[in-house]
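[job 4471] stage=fold_predict status=RUNNING
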Amino acid sequence: MLCCGQETLVLTPLSFTLLRQLSDGDFHSGEDLAAKVGLTRARVSQLLRQAETAGLTLERVRGLGYRLKAAPDFLDAAVVRAVLTQLGTIVAKPGAPAPKLQVPIEEDLGIYGSERSVFDRTPPALQVEVSDQIDSTSSELLRRAPRRDIHGAVLAAEWQTAGRGRRGRSWTAVAGGSLTFSIGWRFEQGAGFLAGLSLAVGVAVARALEKEGYDGVELKWPNDLVFRHHKVGGILIEVNGDALGPSTVVVGVGINVRMPREVRREIAQPVTDLQTVAGRGSKPVDRNRLLARLVAELASMLAAYAEHGFAPIAAEWQQRHAYQGKPVKLVLPDGGAVKGTVAGVDASGALVLADGPRRSRFLTGELSLRRA
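[job 4471] inference complete, writing structure tokens
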């Protein structure tokens, strides 16, 4: 699960190899586990302790061994691809080489001029990849960008060792309890055109959650997802490129799926998860299906944004804003504060605050929103 805090633990790929062995419903002795994963008994014991620290519950029976009491639904790229195909999204074949970087040359620019696209705007076939452990899905896509095209590249991870949120905040995770992924996209336009992108992504995520039955999740300017004013997820947009374009964008999304109460108590802000949103007695969240739905909605939104920008969905964003029409306080990075009533957002995604007849605009990425 994701929530702002401090990371105290790292689960390695070996940890997940071991956890998959323990998730088949059978008991496994320490000797068998050590033999299957090629480790010593001492190392297996250490990994099991780490798994418990990461929020998983092990069942121990003398003479039988260990098993996971409630095994997480591990992310599976093949399952995600299959669901995406069912949803009508074009998916690249596993192992297909990444497309070469598409860079307009001077001759193209001279022939077509600045008013005509020199990029192919056809939605890409999505390349879906799942990693057990990585520093950050967004950081990895950004590292790949200089040498290959990440347009339509989707990277999800079970565990991030350096996951981050807005303004450099870190994330705290519980094994199998979150959904963290990033998607790369290419835009002809520059940073100014992309100012409202995080808000558009929020709308796409909210739509996806609704389609999967998670009603009541609202947006909080500029990039949080909340349920009854408790944070359930967040969005991070990172842009590389020229001021006037083109731009390569990496969209990072984190969703809390299942969060133990003891973890919530350690977080310095109100947080919740999708299992709570679904309500008591609801079936467990299917993370693979949810990931596919989120990716499908995001790909559709990113393609539409490339054509039309934020303006066509500004009204929908305002309808989904948890603080629309309410008195608020904006805390500025320098510690100053501005009070007013949320009047909405403009066509670029800037927050508009009303103080009597006066209207003030605030740009995304610089402010923290608090209820007055």
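[job 4471] summary: The CA atoms of residues 166 and 236 lie 6 Å apart.
[job 4471] exit 0
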